[in-house]
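From the pipeline queue, job 12 of 40. The input is one protein chain; the requested action is below.

Action: predict structure.
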Amino acid sequence: MKLRASPATRVFLLLFLAVLLASAAGLGWRLFTDDAPWSGRIIAAAVIAFVVPFCFVGARHALGPFRIDVDERGWRVRTRRLTRDVRWDELAAVVLAHSPAHAGTDGSAGTAVPTSRRGPGAPRLLLVPADGVDLGVEATGSSPVDGRPALELFALDDVVYGEVRFVRDLSALAGGRFHNRCAHLTRPPGATPLHRFPDRSAHLRLTRWLGLRETGVFLGWYVLVLALPLALTVLAARWDVLLGVLALLATAVATIAGTATVLSIFHGCRSLAAVPAMIDGRELLTGHGDAIARTDLHSERIRVTPGGARAGYGRASLLVTANDAGRPSPVLLLSDPRTGDPRDRDDLRALAAVLRDSPHGTGRDAARHLDALAAGAPPPRPRDPDDDLPASEDPVDLRGALAGMLRPLALGGCVATVAAAAALTYDAAPPIAAIFIVTASVLTGVWFIYTLICVRRLADAVLTPSTRATRPLEP
Protein backbone atom coordinates (compact mmCIF):
# COMPACT_ATOMS: atom_id res chain seq x y z
CA MET A 1 0.00 0.00 0.00
CA LYS A 2 1.29 3.43 -0.96
CA LEU A 3 -0.52 6.19 0.91
CA ARG A 4 0.02 9.73 -0.35
CA ALA A 5 -1.61 13.11 0.09
CA SER A 6 -3.43 14.47 -2.94
CA PRO A 7 -1.04 16.54 -5.10
CA ALA A 8 -4.02 18.38 -6.57
CA THR A 9 -5.12 19.48 -3.10
CA ARG A 10 -1.62 20.74 -2.33
CA VAL A 11 -1.42 22.67 -5.60
CA PHE A 12 -4.82 24.30 -5.08
CA LEU A 13 -3.93 25.21 -1.50
CA LEU A 14 -0.64 26.81 -2.57
CA LEU A 15 -2.39 28.77 -5.33
CA PHE A 16 -4.99 30.02 -2.87
CA LEU A 17 -2.30 31.05 -0.39
CA ALA A 18 -0.35 32.81 -3.14
CA VAL A 19 -3.41 34.82 -4.21
CA LEU A 20 -4.21 35.65 -0.58
CA LEU A 21 -0.66 36.78 0.15
CA ALA A 22 -0.46 38.82 -3.06
CA SER A 23 -3.76 40.52 -2.21
CA ALA A 24 -2.54 41.40 1.28
CA ALA A 25 0.75 42.72 -0.13
CA GLY A 26 -1.08 44.83 -2.70
CA LEU A 27 -3.39 46.23 -0.03
CA GLY A 28 -0.47 47.11 2.21
CA TRP A 29 1.53 48.71 -0.60
CA ARG A 30 -1.37 50.90 -1.67
CA LEU A 31 -2.30 52.07 1.81
CA PHE A 32 1.25 52.71 3.01
CA THR A 33 2.46 54.44 -0.17
CA ASP A 34 -0.65 56.54 -0.81
CA ASP A 35 -1.86 59.29 1.46
CA ALA A 36 -4.23 56.99 3.36
CA PRO A 37 -5.69 57.80 6.80
CA TRP A 38 -4.14 56.20 9.87
CA SER A 39 -7.30 54.17 10.50
CA GLY A 40 -6.92 52.50 7.10
CA ARG A 41 -3.26 51.77 7.75
CA ILE A 42 -4.08 50.18 11.11
CA ILE A 43 -6.71 47.96 9.51
CA ALA A 44 -4.29 47.00 6.72
CA ALA A 45 -1.58 46.18 9.29
CA ALA A 46 -4.03 43.98 11.21
CA VAL A 47 -5.03 42.14 8.01
CA ILE A 48 -1.39 41.59 7.03
CA ALA A 49 -0.53 40.44 10.57
CA PHE A 50 -3.22 37.76 10.26
CA VAL A 51 -2.65 36.76 6.62
CA VAL A 52 1.13 36.25 6.76
CA PRO A 53 1.15 33.69 9.62
CA PHE A 54 -1.91 32.01 8.11
CA CYS A 55 -0.14 31.62 4.77
CA PHE A 56 3.01 30.37 6.51
CA VAL A 57 1.09 27.66 8.37
CA GLY A 58 -0.85 26.72 5.24
CA ALA A 59 2.31 26.47 3.13
CA ARG A 60 3.97 24.35 5.81
CA HIS A 61 0.99 22.01 5.71
CA ALA A 62 0.97 21.86 1.89
CA LEU A 63 4.72 21.32 1.51
CA GLY A 64 5.18 19.01 4.49
CA PRO A 65 6.20 15.38 3.91
CA PHE A 66 3.52 12.71 3.71
CA ARG A 67 4.67 9.31 2.48
CA ILE A 68 3.46 6.09 4.07
CA ASP A 69 4.26 2.65 2.66
CA VAL A 70 2.81 -0.53 4.15
CA ASP A 71 3.91 -4.06 3.27
CA GLU A 72 4.43 -7.46 4.88
CA ARG A 73 7.41 -6.15 6.91
CA GLY A 74 5.63 -3.16 8.44
CA TRP A 75 5.22 0.58 8.02
CA ARG A 76 7.56 3.17 6.51
CA VAL A 77 6.21 6.49 7.77
CA ARG A 78 7.46 9.89 6.65
CA THR A 79 5.13 12.60 8.00
CA ARG A 80 5.58 15.75 10.07
CA ARG A 81 4.38 13.92 13.18
CA LEU A 82 6.23 10.63 12.80
CA THR A 83 9.33 9.73 10.78
CA ARG A 84 10.45 6.16 11.29
CA ASP A 85 9.99 2.55 10.22
CA VAL A 86 7.63 0.48 12.33
CA ARG A 87 7.69 -3.31 12.24
CA TRP A 88 4.49 -5.26 12.64
CA ASP A 89 5.71 -6.84 15.89
CA GLU A 90 6.02 -3.31 17.33
CA LEU A 91 2.28 -2.77 16.96
CA ALA A 92 -0.36 -4.33 19.17
CA ALA A 93 -3.22 -3.14 16.96
CA VAL A 94 -4.13 -0.94 14.01
CA VAL A 95 -7.55 0.61 14.44
CA LEU A 96 -9.78 2.43 11.96
CA ALA A 97 -12.38 4.44 13.85
CA HIS A 98 -14.26 7.71 13.89
CA SER A 99 -13.26 10.45 16.26
CA PRO A 100 -14.93 10.08 19.69
CA ALA A 101 -17.23 13.03 18.95
CA HIS A 102 -18.67 11.11 15.99
CA ALA A 103 -18.60 7.58 17.39
CA GLY A 104 -20.66 7.90 20.58
CA THR A 105 -19.83 9.12 24.04
CA ASP A 106 -16.91 6.76 24.52
CA GLY A 107 -15.96 5.99 20.93
CA SER A 108 -16.46 2.31 21.56
CA ALA A 109 -17.43 -0.25 18.98
CA GLY A 110 -21.12 -0.66 18.57
CA THR A 111 -21.79 3.03 19.15
CA ALA A 112 -20.19 4.02 15.88
CA VAL A 113 -22.62 5.66 13.52
CA PRO A 114 -22.46 5.67 9.73
CA THR A 115 -20.88 8.86 8.50
CA SER A 116 -19.29 10.21 5.37
CA ARG A 117 -15.61 10.02 4.63
CA ARG A 118 -15.21 13.78 4.44
CA GLY A 119 -15.30 16.29 7.23
CA PRO A 120 -14.63 16.18 10.99
CA GLY A 121 -16.14 12.71 11.28
CA ALA A 122 -13.85 11.12 8.70
CA PRO A 123 -12.43 7.75 9.81
CA ARG A 124 -8.96 8.03 11.34
CA LEU A 125 -6.21 5.45 11.56
CA LEU A 126 -4.72 4.74 14.97
CA LEU A 127 -1.46 2.91 15.65
CA VAL A 128 -1.42 1.13 19.04
CA PRO A 129 2.18 0.35 20.09
CA ALA A 130 2.96 -3.00 21.66
CA ASP A 131 3.98 -3.13 25.30
CA GLY A 132 7.40 -1.62 25.84
CA VAL A 133 7.57 -0.01 22.38
CA ASP A 134 8.19 3.73 22.12
CA LEU A 135 7.33 5.28 18.74
CA GLY A 136 9.21 8.44 19.64
CA VAL A 137 6.14 10.68 19.82
CA GLU A 138 3.44 11.15 22.42
CA ALA A 139 0.14 9.32 22.06
CA THR A 140 -2.63 11.52 20.70
CA GLY A 141 -5.58 9.44 21.88
CA SER A 142 -6.71 6.04 23.03
CA SER A 143 -7.78 2.91 21.22
CA PRO A 144 -11.56 2.38 21.07
CA VAL A 145 -10.87 -1.36 21.31
CA ASP A 146 -9.22 -1.56 24.74
CA GLY A 147 -8.40 2.03 25.75
CA ARG A 148 -4.64 1.68 25.30
CA PRO A 149 -2.63 4.79 24.24
CA ALA A 150 -2.64 5.24 20.47
CA LEU A 151 -1.16 7.55 17.87
CA GLU A 152 -3.51 9.04 15.27
CA LEU A 153 -1.55 8.76 12.04
CA PHE A 154 -4.00 10.32 9.58
CA ALA A 155 -7.65 10.63 8.60
CA LEU A 156 -8.87 8.81 5.52
CA ASP A 157 -9.63 12.06 3.74
CA ASP A 158 -5.92 12.96 4.07
CA VAL A 159 -4.85 10.24 1.62
CA VAL A 160 -5.64 9.38 -1.98
CA TYR A 161 -6.89 5.85 -1.41
CA GLY A 162 -10.42 4.50 -1.61
CA GLU A 163 -11.82 3.61 1.80
CA VAL A 164 -13.21 0.21 0.75
CA ARG A 165 -9.90 -0.65 -0.91
CA PHE A 166 -8.08 0.66 2.16
CA VAL A 167 -9.98 -1.64 4.52
CA ARG A 168 -9.51 -4.61 2.21
CA ASP A 169 -5.78 -4.12 1.67
CA LEU A 170 -4.92 -3.22 5.25
CA SER A 171 -6.87 -6.15 6.69
CA ALA A 172 -4.94 -8.47 4.35
CA LEU A 173 -1.60 -7.08 5.58
CA ALA A 174 -2.36 -6.55 9.26
CA GLY A 175 -4.39 -9.71 9.82
CA GLY A 176 -5.71 -9.97 13.37
CA ARG A 177 -4.08 -6.67 14.38
CA PHE A 178 -6.57 -4.71 12.26
CA HIS A 179 -9.81 -3.56 13.92
CA ASN A 180 -12.47 -1.78 11.86
CA ARG A 181 -14.77 0.29 14.06
CA CYS A 182 -16.52 2.16 11.22
CA ALA A 183 -20.08 0.95 10.84
CA HIS A 184 -20.42 2.15 7.26
CA LEU A 185 -17.37 0.09 6.23
CA THR A 186 -18.53 -3.11 7.93
CA ARG A 187 -20.50 -5.71 6.01
CA PRO A 188 -23.57 -7.07 7.86
CA PRO A 189 -22.90 -10.60 9.15
CA GLY A 190 -24.21 -13.22 6.74
CA ALA A 191 -24.78 -10.75 3.89
CA THR A 192 -24.02 -11.98 0.35
CA PRO A 193 -22.33 -9.30 -1.79
CA LEU A 194 -23.27 -9.12 -5.46
CA HIS A 195 -20.65 -8.53 -8.11
CA ARG A 196 -20.20 -5.00 -9.32
CA PHE A 197 -22.23 -4.37 -12.45
CA PRO A 198 -21.19 -3.17 -14.91
CA ASP A 199 -17.58 -4.01 -14.14
CA ARG A 200 -14.82 -1.39 -14.43
CA SER A 201 -14.23 -1.56 -18.18
CA ALA A 202 -17.94 -1.83 -19.04
CA HIS A 203 -18.74 0.99 -16.61
CA LEU A 204 -16.22 3.25 -18.34
CA ARG A 205 -17.81 2.51 -21.73
CA LEU A 206 -21.28 3.06 -20.26
CA THR A 207 -20.23 6.42 -18.82
CA ARG A 208 -18.98 7.58 -22.22
CA TRP A 209 -22.14 6.24 -23.89
CA LEU A 210 -24.29 8.23 -21.47
CA GLY A 211 -22.11 11.29 -22.03
CA LEU A 212 -22.76 11.25 -25.77
CA ARG A 213 -26.49 11.02 -25.24
CA GLU A 214 -26.42 13.77 -22.64
CA THR A 215 -24.65 15.98 -25.19
CA GLY A 216 -27.49 15.51 -27.65
CA VAL A 217 -30.08 16.18 -24.96
CA PHE A 218 -28.21 19.33 -23.90
CA LEU A 219 -28.18 20.70 -27.45
CA GLY A 220 -31.91 20.15 -27.71
CA TRP A 221 -32.44 21.77 -24.31
CA TYR A 222 -30.32 24.78 -25.26
CA VAL A 223 -32.20 25.44 -28.50
CA LEU A 224 -35.76 24.61 -27.41
CA VAL A 225 -35.78 25.44 -23.70
CA LEU A 226 -33.30 28.31 -23.36
CA ALA A 227 -32.36 30.11 -26.58
CA LEU A 228 -35.73 30.07 -28.36
CA PRO A 229 -37.82 31.21 -25.33
CA LEU A 230 -35.25 33.92 -24.55
CA ALA A 231 -35.37 35.14 -28.15
CA LEU A 232 -39.17 35.34 -28.01
CA THR A 233 -38.97 37.16 -24.67
CA VAL A 234 -36.53 39.72 -26.12
CA LEU A 235 -38.79 40.33 -29.12
CA ALA A 236 -41.84 40.69 -26.87
CA ALA A 237 -40.02 43.08 -24.51
CA ARG A 238 -38.81 45.26 -27.39
CA TRP A 239 -42.41 45.42 -28.64
CA ASP A 240 -44.10 46.07 -25.28
CA VAL A 241 -42.81 45.92 -21.68
CA LEU A 242 -45.96 44.28 -20.27
CA LEU A 243 -45.94 41.69 -23.02
CA GLY A 244 -42.26 41.10 -22.26
CA VAL A 245 -43.01 40.50 -18.57
CA LEU A 246 -45.64 37.89 -19.47
CA ALA A 247 -43.23 36.24 -21.89
CA LEU A 248 -40.51 36.28 -19.21
CA LEU A 249 -42.79 34.50 -16.72
CA ALA A 250 -43.67 31.86 -19.30
CA THR A 251 -39.99 31.46 -20.19
CA ALA A 252 -39.04 31.02 -16.52
CA VAL A 253 -41.66 28.31 -15.98
CA ALA A 254 -40.76 26.50 -19.19
CA THR A 255 -37.01 26.69 -18.48
CA ILE A 256 -37.34 25.39 -14.92
CA ALA A 257 -39.66 22.55 -15.94
CA GLY A 258 -37.58 21.64 -18.99
CA THR A 259 -34.32 21.71 -17.04
CA ALA A 260 -35.73 19.45 -14.30
CA THR A 261 -36.95 16.99 -16.93
CA VAL A 262 -33.64 16.94 -18.79
CA LEU A 263 -31.61 16.44 -15.60
CA SER A 264 -33.76 13.48 -14.58
CA ILE A 265 -33.48 11.58 -17.88
CA PHE A 266 -30.13 9.87 -17.28
CA HIS A 267 -29.62 10.62 -13.58
CA GLY A 268 -31.21 7.36 -12.43
CA CYS A 269 -29.13 5.25 -14.82
CA ARG A 270 -25.90 6.93 -13.72
CA SER A 271 -26.71 6.46 -10.04
CA LEU A 272 -27.51 2.75 -10.47
CA ALA A 273 -24.46 1.97 -12.60
CA ALA A 274 -21.93 0.03 -10.51
CA VAL A 275 -23.82 0.72 -7.27
CA PRO A 276 -22.63 -1.71 -4.53
CA ALA A 277 -25.31 -4.27 -3.68
CA MET A 278 -25.69 -7.21 -1.31
CA ILE A 279 -28.40 -9.58 -0.15
CA ASP A 280 -29.05 -9.62 3.59
CA GLY A 281 -31.71 -12.20 4.33
CA ARG A 282 -34.84 -11.07 2.51
CA GLU A 283 -33.49 -7.54 1.94
CA LEU A 284 -31.46 -6.05 -0.88
CA LEU A 285 -28.95 -3.46 0.30
CA THR A 286 -27.78 -0.96 -2.31
CA GLY A 287 -25.44 1.98 -1.96
CA HIS A 288 -22.30 2.71 -0.01
CA GLY A 289 -21.31 4.44 3.21
CA ASP A 290 -24.13 6.32 4.87
CA ALA A 291 -26.32 6.17 1.73
CA ILE A 292 -27.39 2.52 1.94
CA ALA A 293 -30.98 1.80 0.87
CA ARG A 294 -32.83 -1.33 1.98
CA THR A 295 -35.42 -2.98 -0.26
CA ASP A 296 -37.65 -5.77 1.00
CA LEU A 297 -37.54 -8.45 -1.71
CA HIS A 298 -40.65 -10.09 -0.26
CA SER A 299 -42.70 -6.95 -0.76
CA GLU A 300 -45.68 -7.11 -3.12
CA ARG A 301 -44.28 -4.04 -4.88
CA ILE A 302 -41.28 -5.84 -6.40
CA ARG A 303 -41.30 -6.09 -10.21
CA VAL A 304 -38.90 -6.81 -13.09
CA THR A 305 -39.18 -4.58 -16.16
CA PRO A 306 -37.84 -5.82 -19.53
CA GLY A 307 -35.03 -4.09 -21.39
CA GLY A 308 -35.94 -0.82 -23.09
CA ALA A 309 -39.16 -0.36 -21.11
CA ARG A 310 -37.87 2.57 -19.06
CA ALA A 311 -36.78 5.83 -20.67
CA GLY A 312 -33.25 6.90 -19.82
CA TYR A 313 -32.07 3.35 -19.03
CA GLY A 314 -31.33 2.19 -22.56
CA ARG A 315 -31.67 -1.57 -23.02
CA ALA A 316 -31.43 -2.38 -19.31
CA SER A 317 -33.76 -4.76 -17.53
CA LEU A 318 -34.50 -3.40 -14.07
CA LEU A 319 -35.52 -4.62 -10.65
CA VAL A 320 -38.05 -2.02 -9.53
CA THR A 321 -40.29 -1.36 -6.57
CA ALA A 322 -43.55 0.55 -6.90
CA ASN A 323 -43.99 3.65 -4.77
CA ASP A 324 -47.20 4.70 -3.01
CA ALA A 325 -48.50 6.22 -6.24
CA GLY A 326 -47.89 2.97 -8.13
CA ARG A 327 -45.00 4.35 -10.19
CA PRO A 328 -42.02 1.97 -10.48
CA SER A 329 -38.77 3.14 -8.93
CA PRO A 330 -35.63 1.35 -10.25
CA VAL A 331 -33.56 -0.38 -7.57
CA LEU A 332 -30.98 -2.49 -9.44
CA LEU A 333 -29.65 -2.91 -12.98
CA LEU A 334 -30.20 -6.47 -14.22
CA SER A 335 -28.62 -5.92 -17.63
CA ASP A 336 -26.30 -3.39 -19.26
CA PRO A 337 -28.08 -0.23 -20.49
CA ARG A 338 -25.69 0.02 -23.42
CA THR A 339 -25.64 -3.58 -24.68
CA GLY A 340 -28.49 -5.34 -22.88
CA ASP A 341 -26.12 -8.06 -21.62
CA PRO A 342 -27.36 -9.54 -18.30
CA ARG A 343 -25.37 -9.24 -15.11
CA ASP A 344 -23.49 -12.12 -13.47
CA ARG A 345 -25.39 -15.41 -13.55
CA ASP A 346 -24.75 -16.17 -9.88
CA ASP A 347 -26.13 -12.76 -8.85
CA LEU A 348 -29.35 -13.30 -10.81
CA ARG A 349 -29.80 -16.75 -9.32
CA ALA A 350 -29.18 -15.47 -5.79
CA LEU A 351 -31.83 -12.78 -6.25
CA ALA A 352 -34.24 -15.29 -7.78
CA ALA A 353 -33.77 -17.67 -4.84
CA VAL A 354 -34.92 -14.98 -2.40
CA LEU A 355 -37.82 -13.82 -4.59
CA ARG A 356 -38.96 -17.40 -5.13
CA ASP A 357 -39.87 -17.60 -1.42
CA SER A 358 -41.93 -14.39 -1.57
CA PRO A 359 -45.50 -14.74 -0.27
CA HIS A 360 -46.70 -12.54 -3.14
CA GLY A 361 -47.24 -13.59 -6.74
CA THR A 362 -45.44 -10.50 -8.03
CA GLY A 363 -42.25 -11.62 -6.29
CA ARG A 364 -42.50 -15.13 -7.74
CA ASP A 365 -43.12 -13.65 -11.20
CA ALA A 366 -39.97 -11.55 -10.75
CA ALA A 367 -38.07 -14.71 -9.82
CA ARG A 368 -39.16 -16.36 -13.09
CA HIS A 369 -37.97 -13.32 -15.05
CA LEU A 370 -34.61 -13.49 -13.27
CA ASP A 371 -34.30 -17.22 -14.02
CA ALA A 372 -34.90 -16.44 -17.70
CA LEU A 373 -32.22 -13.72 -17.62
CA ALA A 374 -29.80 -16.07 -15.84
CA ALA A 375 -30.32 -18.72 -18.52
CA GLY A 376 -29.05 -16.26 -21.13
CA ALA A 377 -26.22 -14.86 -19.00
CA PRO A 378 -22.63 -15.74 -19.90
CA PRO A 379 -20.81 -18.20 -17.65
CA PRO A 380 -18.88 -16.75 -14.71
CA ARG A 381 -15.41 -15.51 -15.66
CA PRO A 382 -12.30 -14.81 -13.62
CA ARG A 383 -12.63 -11.40 -12.03
CA ASP A 384 -10.03 -8.86 -11.02
CA PRO A 385 -10.25 -8.04 -7.28
CA ASP A 386 -10.74 -4.38 -8.22
CA ASP A 387 -13.86 -5.21 -10.25
CA ASP A 388 -16.00 -5.27 -7.12
CA LEU A 389 -14.80 -1.96 -5.68
CA PRO A 390 -17.28 0.96 -5.78
CA ALA A 391 -17.19 3.06 -8.93
CA SER A 392 -16.18 6.06 -6.78
CA GLU A 393 -12.82 4.34 -6.18
CA ASP A 394 -11.97 3.77 -9.84
CA PRO A 395 -8.80 5.46 -11.13
CA VAL A 396 -9.53 8.92 -12.48
CA ASP A 397 -10.24 8.72 -16.21
CA LEU A 398 -8.07 11.33 -17.94
CA ARG A 399 -10.14 11.18 -21.11
CA GLY A 400 -13.32 11.65 -19.12
CA ALA A 401 -11.80 14.52 -17.15
CA LEU A 402 -10.77 16.27 -20.38
CA ALA A 403 -14.25 15.76 -21.83
CA GLY A 404 -15.69 17.09 -18.58
CA MET A 405 -13.96 20.42 -19.22
CA LEU A 406 -16.41 20.96 -22.08
CA ARG A 407 -19.24 21.27 -19.57
CA PRO A 408 -18.01 24.57 -18.09
CA LEU A 409 -17.74 25.85 -21.67
CA ALA A 410 -21.34 24.83 -22.33
CA LEU A 411 -22.48 26.45 -19.09
CA GLY A 412 -20.52 29.57 -20.04
CA GLY A 413 -22.44 29.65 -23.31
CA CYS A 414 -25.70 29.62 -21.35
CA VAL A 415 -24.47 32.53 -19.23
CA ALA A 416 -23.48 34.43 -22.37
CA THR A 417 -26.93 33.81 -23.87
CA VAL A 418 -28.66 35.31 -20.82
CA ALA A 419 -26.21 38.24 -20.81
CA ALA A 420 -26.95 38.85 -24.52
CA ALA A 421 -30.66 38.92 -23.71
CA ALA A 422 -29.95 41.55 -21.05
CA ALA A 423 -28.02 43.69 -23.53
CA LEU A 424 -30.79 43.47 -26.16
CA THR A 425 -33.48 44.56 -23.69
CA TYR A 426 -31.47 47.16 -21.79
CA ASP A 427 -32.84 50.18 -23.66
CA ALA A 428 -36.35 48.96 -24.48
CA ALA A 429 -37.24 47.27 -21.15
CA PRO A 430 -34.84 48.12 -18.28
CA PRO A 431 -36.80 46.11 -15.62
CA ILE A 432 -36.57 42.94 -17.71
CA ALA A 433 -32.91 43.66 -18.47
CA ALA A 434 -32.27 43.98 -14.71
CA ILE A 435 -33.76 40.51 -14.16
CA PHE A 436 -31.57 39.10 -16.91
CA ILE A 437 -28.49 40.78 -15.36
CA VAL A 438 -29.22 39.32 -11.92
CA THR A 439 -29.80 35.88 -13.45
CA ALA A 440 -26.56 36.09 -15.42
CA SER A 441 -24.68 37.14 -12.27
CA VAL A 442 -25.99 34.14 -10.31
CA LEU A 443 -25.20 31.80 -13.20
CA THR A 444 -21.69 33.27 -13.36
CA GLY A 445 -21.13 32.30 -9.74
CA VAL A 446 -22.43 28.80 -10.43
CA TRP A 447 -20.21 28.60 -13.51
CA PHE A 448 -17.14 29.64 -11.51
CA ILE A 449 -17.70 27.04 -8.80
CA TYR A 450 -18.45 24.29 -11.32
CA THR A 451 -15.34 25.20 -13.32
CA LEU A 452 -13.20 24.86 -10.20
CA ILE A 453 -14.71 21.41 -9.59
CA CYS A 454 -13.93 20.30 -13.15
CA VAL A 455 -10.40 21.73 -13.00
CA ARG A 456 -9.83 19.92 -9.70
CA ARG A 457 -10.97 16.64 -11.25
CA LEU A 458 -8.65 17.20 -14.21
CA ALA A 459 -5.79 17.98 -11.83
CA ASP A 460 -6.49 14.73 -9.99
CA ALA A 461 -6.34 12.84 -13.28
CA VAL A 462 -3.08 14.50 -14.34
CA LEU A 463 -1.21 14.66 -11.04
CA THR A 464 -2.24 11.43 -9.30
CA PRO A 465 -2.45 8.64 -11.90
CA SER A 466 0.15 6.50 -10.14
CA THR A 467 -1.38 6.73 -6.68
CA ARG A 468 -5.00 6.41 -7.78
CA ALA A 469 -4.28 3.52 -10.13
CA THR A 470 -1.89 1.65 -7.86
CA ARG A 471 -2.81 -2.00 -8.07
CA PRO A 472 -3.85 -3.18 -4.59
CA LEU A 473 -2.32 -6.12 -2.82
CA GLU A 474 -4.44 -9.23 -3.13
CA PRO A 475 -5.67 -10.77 0.11
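Job complete. Confidence is low (pLDDT under 50) at residues 101-120, 466-475.
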